[in-house]
Amino acid sequence: MKRVGGVAVLAAGVVLLAGCVRDSGGASTTTVTKTAEPIPEESLAPEPSASSTTTVPWSLGEYAQNDYQKTRAIAVEQASSEYSQLAADQQWWKVEIETCALADLQGETVTTGWSPWGLQGDDGGSYPASNMTWSDFPKPQYPFGSDPIPVGQCRKGWVMVAMNQGVSASAVTYSPDGATGTTWTVE
């Protein structure tokens, strides 16, 4: 952010109305009128900080990256699972995801799991990733628990999300604890 320093400069328009006026005592008096107006300071808009910058949603396949990891949603498709016994008014969707560890996170390894992931529906609803897995979910599955990823390695697989019947996915959401969320648009 640029900083403007210094004292505000005044432009003074001085108008002298000088006249010799004699009062009854014979002394002469001088009258001076002075008008000053400030010069307006340059208006500077602050530069956006990293925390106030708005990010446009990513397209499927594009990496979102920070200092520690890069992550992407690759594909979104309808799915099925006979064993999960999903309610009749719901349907399964699968999201293919990849996360790569770039560096240690302040002495701790990057971990991954299903809980930060979800879908936004074309009905405006938010649908979280499933909180359980079934043997007939698509393989390879994205790591389910808090799976550590060694620096320089990646984890890739499918996450399952139950949505209302007849609703289509409009975006993939990733909202890890304590971090800014990321969105990938489903087209």
Automatic annotation (TrEMBL):
Low complexity bias spans: 36-55
Region span, Disordered: 25-57
Protein name: Uncharacterized protein
Organism in which the protein naturally occurs: Janibacter indicus
